Amino acid sequence: MNFIRLFRICSFGWQGFRRNGWLSFIAIINVALTLLMISVALVGSITLNEQRKEVEEELDLTIFLKEEAQEEDILATANRLQERGDVKEVIYVDKEKALAEYIELNKGDEELLAISDEIGSSLARYIRVKPKVADSLKEINDFVLNKYNPIVDETSYEATRESINDFINASKFIIRISIVFSGVLTIVSIIVVLNVIRLAIFSRREEIQVMRIVGASNELIRLPFVIEGLIFGILAALIALLMFWLGAAWLKSQIPLYFPYSEANPLMLFTQYFGELFWSNMLTGILLSTFISYIAVRRYLKL
């Protein structure tokens, strides 16, 4: 295909796009909404995965010790845990350190600080174990309960596991909802673009007939409609990026009103993942719209 022929095809495609007016606009908005939901799912998945990793990095197992446990037994237990290959760090907190942590934690509350001397002797001693990977937390917990049960009162494993499971389940739910909406909007976009191309073919049936009479090739007749789909995809991708940016900017202004202490910044996410968003939107929009247009041409344009 030479340059002149390609220019003619693109020119005919652009003219067809302009003729359809509102139909083209509706098709673009539908594809843009689909791309927007895909973008939200993409960024949400990446962000939640990173947050899950951060949460897992902060995970530890707190082993609360019985009051009658001997100091030498506790130190021996801590040393044995440190020797495990799946343990990153072991910290033993005695009553003195526990009291210091209590004072540091409540340094702004005068009432709680006033009773620090009274509760100091009742604070539990504990061993804090930080695993190298979160998956080894259960194995470490079982090891402690089985081997050192006589000096162990309880561990924080169950509470930690429930918190992590709640976070993971909430993350999966959000991603699934985004995927479902993306799927529904994709189906709607397919139907809309198919019908826009079908109506375009119908409205230009006399023009197509004339082109056939004067000897225009099937390629010259069909490809302009595919070019229309290509234009849908490019414009939809740019609009989806604009909508994502506007939404992120609006959320940034609203978060401090409802969550004053939150450091969440959706606009920063847009900037951080702009490259991924731009290319995923552009490629998905072009491939989706072009493919649908090609199917519509094959189905409705009989030459």
List the keywords.
303 residues, alpha+beta, Alpha-Beta Plaits, 2 domains, four-stranded antiparallel β-sheet, 12 helices
3D architecture notes:
By secondary structure, this protein is α+β, with helices and mostly antiparallel strands. The chain has helices at residues 3-20, 22-57, 71-83, 95-105, 110-114, 116-119, 137-147, 157-203, 205-213, 218-258, 266-272, 274-300; strands at residues 61-65, 87-93, 126-131, 152-155. It folds into two domains: 3-55 and 164-300, no CATH class; 58-157, Alpha-Beta Plaits. The two termini are 20 Å apart. The mean pLDDT is 81.
Annotate the secondary structure layout.
Layout: H1 3-20, H2 22-57, E1 61-65, H3 71-83, E2 87-93, H4 95-105, H5 110-114, H6 116-119, E3 126-131, H7 137-147, E4 152-155, H8 157-203, H9 205-213, H10 218-258, H11 266-272, H12 274-300
Antiparallel strand pairs: 1-3, 1-4, 2-3
Largest sheet: 4 strands, antiparallel
| Secondary-structure element pattern, one letter each | HHEHEHHHEHEHHHHH
- Distance between the terminal alpha carbons, to the nearest Å? 20 Å
The helix-and-strand class reads alpha+beta
Question: What is the average of the pLDDT values?
Answer: 81
For the largest sheet, list the strands in their spatial order: 2-3-1-4
Compute the number of structural domains. 2
Short précis:
By secondary structure, this protein is α+β, with helices and mostly antiparallel strands. The protein contains 12 helices and 4 strands; from the N terminus they run ααβαβαααβαβααααα. It has a 4-stranded antiparallel beta sheet.
